[in-house]
Amino acid sequence: MGEKNYIVSIDQGTSSTKVLLYDTLGNVRAESAHFIHFVQNDCNFIEQKPLDILQSIRNALKDVLHRSGIDPKKVSAVAIDNQGETIIPFKKNDLSPLYNAVSWQDNRGEDRIRQLKKDESFSRYIEKKTGLLASSYFSAAKMEWLVENVSEVREEMENHNLMMATSEVWLINKLIQNKKFQSDFTTASRTMLFDLQGLKWDERILSFFKLNMDCMAVTVPSIGDYGITDPSCCHGIVAPIVVSVVDQQAALIGHRCFREGQAKITLGTGGFLQVNSGKDSENRSRVIIKSILPELFDETSYLYEGQIYAVGSAIEWLRRNELLRDYSELGQINSSPALSFPYFIPALSGVAAPYWRSEPLAAFIGMGLQTSRLDLVSSVMEAIAFSVVQNIELMQKETGIAIKSLSVDGRVSQFISILKTIAGLTGVKIIQSQNEDLTSLGCFFLAGSRLGVFNNYVEIQAFSVESVVHDEALNETVSARFVQWQRLFDKVIEMA
């Protein structure tokens, strides 16, 4: 790489964008994070302004260059990860956004999904082709809603000037010199429109959601040529973007889960349990979804995934409603609640596997006159741990894969009580990474493989990442509460 010996990793997440500047030895030379606000509205829509997301990237890039003091011309490559199912519709000719970014958390397409599920044959077709279960969590129904309800979107489609895309397509095009409408396989696989085995858009599913090939990006591998950055936008950086990938798949690479059966869970805004399923692309479960991994060293692998929609967002909900006054209070909660404590059903944004319901169904159950504010906080933290356990058990049952160890990351993984509860109930060894930026590290590994920094899996495995292992004996009280929590969860779903 000559004098160009730095890699920029852009972690474009739900609530913030974080940029890390790596040298080729993997040392972080500078980092910066900028939060992104959600648009307030009266429709319970969950949106962000595209320009706010873009500006968070530009601000973080400016910060890392300033803090590191390096010449931007020494950046050899850029890697970017994205939110996955979040979409930004825009004009092809001038890149003007036609609507706000519609978040992966948004469920405005639920009526359409409910209608779809009545057609058992087509539902099974979608499952077989995409590896996904019909849900408004994925992009397709959100895209159709925009076509049907936003006149500007519909007009540009008629004029063959619409790009209906996941968020990274617009963002990358704003960062590069010449337009390239490309979406990588991992991101395309989150739309519910992508043929997981053929690695292409499925025209029958596109037609069902009133979309066509003309408004879709070209699908390409995650590691490749995404364009050269525009120095006027990227504060002097002129370098190829060589990686585009979904954030959770980047995290799986950061955890170095390269072998079949290796698993990780990221506990951030949501919780995402992923298990490497090897080279088999077929999804044999009707509860757990399947997706694709970045093709590292020219090998294509797949993964099973279970989602928990509300993890960090549940804690933020506590804070916003003043049940949690300060994050330091989380260290005071009872990590082993008594049987008389209330239970929390954490469906603040609906619930994924095994129920797949998009409507909010959250509830506290069992409150009494003696229930305190911190008891409620404790119940929420317990429910986060229980949700992880529920997903681990479901994953093992549905896939036949025995999870013996689980790597964890994300800001909520810092709460040891959650990790101990998971370890005690499952018997799984919990490996807590001391690196808080495994998603960015995954982008670094992917970019490094493109640049020749890493030539095989062994070289990546040799990269040092400190971790702490949590083993915990089964607590009978916690076990009894988990059993009752599952019963109550089933009852809430049944009544809804």
Tell me about this structure.
By secondary structure, the protein is of the alpha/beta class. Helices cover 34% and strands 21% of the residues. It has a domain of 243 residues: Nucleotidyltransferase, domain 5. The protein starts with 5 loop residues before the first strand and ends with a helix.
What fold name stands as the CATH topology of the domain at 6-248? Nucleotidyltransferase, domain 5
What's the CATH C level of the domain at 6-248? Alpha Beta
Q: Number of helix segments?
A: 15
CATH superfamily heading of the domain at 6-248: ATPase, nucleotide binding domain
Proportion of beta-strand residues: 15-25%
Q: What is the strand tally?
A: 22
> Which sequence of strands runs across the widest sheet?
16-17-15-14-20-21-22
Overall pLDDT: 93
User: In angstroms, what is the radius of gyration?
Assistant: 22 Å
Rough outline: globular
Q: Regions with pLDDT < 50 over 5+ consecutive residues?
A: none
Helix/sheet category:
alpha/beta
Amino-to-carboxy terminus distance: 59 Å
Which architecture name of the domain at 6-248 does CATH use?
2-Layer Sandwich
Indicate the percent of residues in helices.
25-40%
Question: Main β-sheet, in a few words?
Answer: 7 strands, mixed
